[in-house]
Amino acid sequence: MQDLGGISGVWSLQFEAELNELRSNPRATRISDYLKRQLTEQVPSMRTAVQQLMMSIERISPRKKHPHPATLQTFRLRPGTYPEQIVADDALRFIGVVDLLEVTEEGAEIIDFKSGSPNIAHEEQVRCYSTLWKHDVIRNPEGRTATRLRIVYPSSSIDLALDGVDYDDARDSLRTRIEVATEALEKGIPKARPLPNTCRYCSVRHLCDEYWETETNRERTNPIDLELEVRELRTANSGTVQLRQTSSHATIYGPIDGIESGDHVRALELYRSDDYESEKVQLHVMPHSELFVMRSE
User: Fold this and answer.
1) C-beta separation of 263 from 248 below 8 A
2) I need a surface site. Which of 55, 175, 214, 238 has the fewest CB within 10 A?
3) Are 232 and 240 in contact (CB under 8 A)?
4) How far is CA 123 from the centre of its chain?
5) pTM of the full structure
6) Structural domains of the chain in order of their starting residue, each with its CATH number
């Protein structure tokens, strides 16, 4: 780790790699400098979080080096520690990527790292990994079971109970979920199911009519997404728009080149400020905001 410049050095190298992949993306070109600045400013807090997570690891066993990443190993896993390890149930055509897999002759300890707060979905995810590991005929041909399931958070960790685990029932449940998802995909475009904590991270939500028609979007606070009608452009950095949800008017500030009067716009990541005395609404286009002109078919 020290040879790589410590945790901060590793983060910097990873930032550059990720940003380089975005250079060909027209949506990222305008905000690449902003992204790099934001990521760099978060390095201290990221470093602290990583250190806290690593302190929760009780042991790291040595293992023989392999010329390929652990995720590509397609043979029986020998005792040792495997980061970012794929486990798969080929019969179900389903895979998972375990953050840290500690393999022994008796079984395996499955460790998953989370940066947020405990959530029941995290437990379901780790239990799913244990089912996949049990039925991975390539990496675990003997069908060894998980000997420990751990979820590690920045300030705590949780051990999941192993008593009474029925791997056949768990596999049947997973099979049913896969069948439902497959059926939905075969019918064409899957039905959108907008949820606040899901939609906010979706990179194509500006194309999802269900998102804009439900209360999901309206529950957000700054930064917010708004659907607008452009009424007047005064300069390249200011204009008047009408909010489609409320029909009220607002003044918009910031780089708004590319839009014209009469345009129907879906704007992502705006900041809204209200002047309650004058009852005027102000919208601010930030470095990471995006404006999409919606064309009628």
Assistant:
1) no
2) 55
3) yes
4) 17
5) 0.72
6) 2-55 (no CATH), 70-185 (3.90.320.10), 196-293 (2.40.50.140)
